[in-house]
Amino acid sequence: LPIPFVNFAADSYMINLGECTFLHWDSGNILSISLDGIPVTGSESLKVCPTELTTYTLVARHSEGQITKTVVIGVNVPTPPPSVDWKARFKEFLDALVAMINRIRESWNV
Question: Which run of H or of E encompasses 86?
Answer without folding.
Answer: helix 86-108
